[in-house]
Amino acid sequence: MSSVSTLLRDLETTMLRGSTDDRTQILSRLTDLFLSTASVMDDDQVGIFDVVIGRLSRAIELRARIELSERLASVPNAPTGVVRQLALDEISVARPVLIASKRLTDQDLVAISAAKGRDHMLAITERPDLGEPVTDFLILRGGRVVTHAIAANHTARFSQHGMGVLVMRAVQDDALQAALGGRGDIPAELADQLMIAAKNSARRRLTASLEPGLAGAVD
């Protein structure tokens, strides 16, 4: 990979004396090279790009970091360190990899959720096939908006405890009831509780819509 050696030499010069534009240009060339050869790289070769791209991406502007995140998000063997670094950046940078990168493990996603705020959690709720450790954490720490989003993700998996918490909250939350109502993975006993909550909510809405003299007639 002689092209890598050339780019590494250019990188050292650019990091010492180059402008932000110079660093962005080198990063673009490195990313182009990586993407063109990623499918045949072994782990050691990917590791070289991880170090080099990671170093450059800490010294470029926001727009370039967003572009890098967008380009790496769907790459199966994208440099893991770079992906994690991007995922911890501000949300406009983090969002593409949080939604799509398979290089982020459940452990990574929980750590990112703990370190960052609601916007990062909401991006994570859009991932397909979220595992139970992630959904448990999002339910615990994410708040109402995140809870609604994760309940509406039909590929997300929930522990018995996590689903139980969702159903318990749905007793007083009509929107959460609606999100859970479209799922096919709710255990029977929890589905019964959800059905009772939905009936009670319908009764409350009907009562609230009636004239005061008729409200007492609602069974």
Question: What is the compact description of this entry?
Answer:
The chain is mostly helical and 219 residues long.
Describe what you observe in this structure.
The protein has 219 residues and is mainly α. It has a domain at 128-219. It has 14 helices and no strands. It has helices spanning 2-17, 20-37, 43-57, 62-72, 80-87, 91-100, 106-115, 118-125, 132-141, 143-151, 160-170, 174-181, 188-209, 212-215.
Low-confidence parts lasting 5 or more residues at pLDDT below 50? none
- Main pleated-sheet profile: none
- The DSSP helix count reads 14
Helix percentage: over 70%
Return Rg in Å.
24 Å
Average of pLDDT: 89
Distance between the termini: 77 Å
SSE order, one letter for each helix or strand: HHHHHHHHHHHHHH
Strand content: under 5%
| Structural class assignment | mainly alpha
Gross morphology: elongated
List how many beta strands DSSP finds.
0
Please outline the helices and strands.
Layout: H1 2-17, H2 20-37, H3 43-57, H4 62-72, H5 80-87, H6 91-100, H7 106-115, H8 118-125, H9 132-141, H10 143-151, H11 160-170, H12 174-181, H13 188-209, H14 212-215
